[in-house]
Amino acid sequence: MAKANFETPALRPYPVIPILKPGAMKGDGPFVAKPQMQESLGYPGELIDNWQEVAIEKMGELLKKYRSLRVYLDACVKCGACTDKCHYMIGTHDPKNMPVARQDLLRQVYRRYFTWPGKLFPKLVGAKDLTKDVLDDWYNYYHQCSQCRRCSVFCPYGIDTADISMAAREILDCVGKGQKYCNEIIAKVYKIGNNLGLPEPALRNTLDGLEEDIKDETGIDVRLPLDVEGAEILVITPSADFFAEPHIDGLIGYAKVFHQARVSWTLSSQASEAANFGMFIGSYENMRRVALRIREAAIKLKVKRIIFGECGHAWRVAYSFLNTLAGPFDFLDQRYPIPQHICEFTHDLIQKGALKFDKSANDHRRVTFHDSCNVARASRMGNIPGGQFTIPREVIKACCNHFYDMPPDTIHDQTYCCGGGGGLLTDDLMELRVKGALPRMEALKEVVDNHGVTHMAAICAICKSQFSKVLPYYGFEMDQIISVHQLVSDALVLTEEVRPVSYQVCNSHIIRA
Amino acid sequence: MGSWTTIYALSFYTATLILILGLAYRIYQYATTPAPLKVPTMPAPLTTGGVVMRVLSEVILFRSLFRSNKWIWLFGMLFHAALWIVLARHLRYFIDPVWSWVVLVQPFGKYGSFVMLFGLLGLLVRRLFVQRIRYISSPSDYLMLILLLVIGVSGVMVSFVTHTDIVQFKAFMLSVMYFDFFNWQPIPTDKMLLVHLTSVILLMIIFPFSKLLHAPGVFFCPSRNQVDNAREKRHVAPWAVKQFETQAPAAD
Prior knowledge:
The complex is a heterodimer.
Chain A: H1 35-40, H2 51-65, H3 67-75, H4 87-92, H5 99-114, H6 116-120, H7 122-125, H8 132-141, H9 150-154, H10 161-174, H11 180-191, H12 200-218, E1 233-236, H13 247-261, E2 265-267, H14 284-300, E3 305-308, H15 312-326, E4 340-341, H16 342-351, E5 367-369, H17 373-378, H18 387-399, H19 430-436, H20 438-451, E6 455-458, H21 461-470, E7 481-483, H22 484-491, H23 503-506
Parallel strand pairs in A: 1-2, 1-3, 3-4, 5-6, 6-7
Chain B: H1 2-32, H2 48-61, H3 63-68, H4 70-90, H5 100-129, H6 131-136, H7 139-160, H8 166-177, H9 191-206, H10 214-217, H11 222-225, H12 238-244
């Protein structure tokens, strides 16, 4: 468990590589999942007696199933290129938060049981028996990785610590030591349909309330439909969008964009969650089961397109894995990307001049953009590589007069994680979350000081929740984090539905051959 | 005299066999293990041609390492580039008549060995004195650098200081290569040469069992060698199809 008291790191005038403090974050890790939750995911309820045997067997199975794992465990030359790249290492100074050292926790066991040198000369090659200490280290330090892939960008072989920590968590789950936060959420998704356990009536109530709010504020009937069969577009969004701040203002933004685009759309109570925590725990099976809800909802509601709301890891699973896990989507309209990101949708409309903005509505804000790690390094938007960087920025610039980027080594594919991704957005990891946010907070401070930036926009539910919580630790206000579609929402000029515009026409350039 | 020749000839056969079979097995293993998910580090190329360029930029220019750490890039680059030139120069001991480009490379190869040693020393010094790198180093990481340094230094000694009967050595090497079993030309027995050869043989044997697997591994890393086309083309591993989609038609 996290220590109750800790010191928020000081913002440094310029970043220097910290001196290591071995054991700085040693501990028992986050809360362990209860037996009931474990079992609903298909794992043993608690640490089994023959955990060592099962763990090694599982590792062998994963080595056969995942080329990434096998090559990554073999290829590292310990060059040290990644050692100063992890935000958790920078914030905590714990050497085991250096990406290579985190990988080594698994690699030492791999070498001991799966390679000749490790079997014959363990000391020489840094191989170790899988003892209870090692297992505890796995649990603790693989839950100090937000699977943000920043280290992978800098590795000469592209070794991705995210993949290794996913494998480690899968092994831990299989021996009965799962993490409470992730596994409870997945269990809730199975039972109710979303991470927050928000049932259908509550969801409908919330959406009705939002419709009234928009009507009061703008005088215009903007709909937030739920479970409408035959709608053209199914919108899958993180459940935080339904009630959390600043997420909800983003959801209002999507609704306004759909309203102006004159397209029929719907949310689904069955798939009322975009996030797929199956990825965090490295479980293909659970990830697939969670992803299949979306396919089922799309079929049931007879939609033609699927669009995802602002959610970072969800967009990774959607963009990179959805076709693999729940495809083929041959029943959807093949002229549109499957799935599409809400920013792509809004951007297309902007390109075609179909949206009118009053940019002065955002003049009280000076905005910067936080590239969410899994959008930046694990997915794409649009037709060209790097569209995930340009499209959200172009959307922001279309509705804001004042936009400033943070320093170049903290954005785009070098972006720093918010500190709460990858299944770590839980209060029992508060110390880690605050410390891990340090590099982003320093980058934000720079644009606040130099350009008077007042707000940081993001397109990820985890980023938004995490920053709301940690911004105050660093002397910022919690409401300085906002949704990109909140900016859209505030500047979009709404009109009553009078002339039908065919979205297919205005969106024609993305139609695929 | 004769026993040295026999020992080294047999050692060369053994080491070559281990190197080739070991590497072939590892490459087979990498190639046949499926990558069930699309996991390229983005932004990634949209075409196979683009992926080839991306992998080549990593293999030839160490692009990501350059973005990451200029010192490691510099020492690593000096070592690897010089190693290739030195290896090219060494071809003259294995072929007869010597190809003209190998003749041309000869002076660069001879002096390239110093560059190689400089790069290796740089890497060793970093490993010893940079706290973060020392923390992640095992004994084998130091020993690997030391082995390469021994190969380099003994090679330089043979070339520039102690000298050996290199014509005789080439005769030995060719007889080994042409499988003149137990009829090999005698090997020169200068100490430096034997140290050089012993350490090279050791390196060949260690290669398929060590982190030297980064050489084939770099071509197989899914984060670098996958095309970014997940939305357009369905990508499923055979085991996933078998496990979950036995009814559905296999795709990709």
